[in-house]
Model the fold of this input.
Amino acid sequence: MRRRAEVLTVVFFFVIVVSLFPLGVGPEIETLRLIAPGVIWVAALLASMLSLDRLFSADYVDGTLEQMLIAAQPLSVLVLSKILAHWVVSGLPLVLVSPVLGMQLGMDVESIGVLVVSLAIGTPVLSLIGAVGAGLTLGVRGGGVLLSLLVLPLYIPVLIFGAGAVEAVQSGMEYGAHVSLLAAFLITALLLAPWGAATALKISLD
Amino acid sequence: MRILSKSFWLQVSAPKAFYPVAGKLIPWFTAIAIILTLVGLYMGFFVAPTDFQQGESYRIIFIHVPAAWMSMLIYVLMACYAAIGLIWNTRLSSMMATALAPTGAMFTFIALWTGAFWGKPTWGAYWVWDARLTSELILLFLYFGFISLQAAIDDPQRASRASALLALVGLVNVPIIYFSVKWWNTLHQGSSLNLDKGSSMEATMLWAMLIMTFAFWAYTIVAALLRVRAVILERERHSEWVGELLGVGK
Done:
């Protein structure tokens, strides 16, 4: 992601996918409010998955990745910094845009707050898990579709608890447990995913 | 005893040596699989009593439960083989992981399919979005991911290393499936079989289920050995012994 346009593409994709639902489902605000958490979360998941392709591919093509492999610093640390940078340009914008989309779908202020929190904790997990898949499919033909097949099943728990937190607050229930579990996913992913992605890159560049 | 020495196992685990050994094992396990399936199905369908709550439809558990067990077990086994192949670079273990994946996917599919047929008369729906069903479905996707990643990469060594890492990442799902009925309040009932409390079912039902499990085990071994023989031939096709075996070359 070295061009401004690429960052905007991900955000626009996110906005457009969410905007398609009122057109497809119908404009009744009650229905929309009911499906809003799931719709926004699924759209965020797809948007972050689409941007995964570009996490390592540019560095792979121009040979930077091989330099990283032989650098003095451990590869997992370099990979972690790449993932964090990738999240800042592809995940963070989604978090920042999401309140507007929540309002579009008729969510109240408290639910929007929880939505932002759940996305802020959840999207880094998506980037971290996705990095392993991106490393594995590097340079493989048909990599994009394959990447989604590998990564989407692993995204499901994040989706369940992310959307679950917002649904809980909408129906007046406690959402703390969902958010805590998301945070636990984030800590585990921070610990293991950089190492996994580094191993994947070593396999791919072997 | 030759069979206890380390060098014996190292010798047998070379693909060239394992190929004829697998060929000798296949007829035995085929016989075991057929006999146990016949006995298990007979016991399950004719000997075991009718369930007082569910009527005759419960008899699907004689397929469903063993298949579900095998789906998880094969995944763990496949991940173990894949890990051994990744760590020690042993060719045969990567081939075994490749050979096990389609059978595992098949049992996962059978578990989901029979579960749907059982769910219709009992729960009134073929499918519910319950934690155990969803996590079993994820397991099916993980098998598909493993198979397709391996198919997408041309270099067999890179393919098995990459899919091994994927199998290990997916391993987190197995405990989630197993404990899903305990952790969440699910529609799917808890296990009828407990190591600490013993079984909550009738002895003939239990035996029929266990026999079916062993039958599926034997089937898995046969399918994996057949497939691993094909994989050995494919990956070692440029070696001399395969040429001699198939009577080509020179």
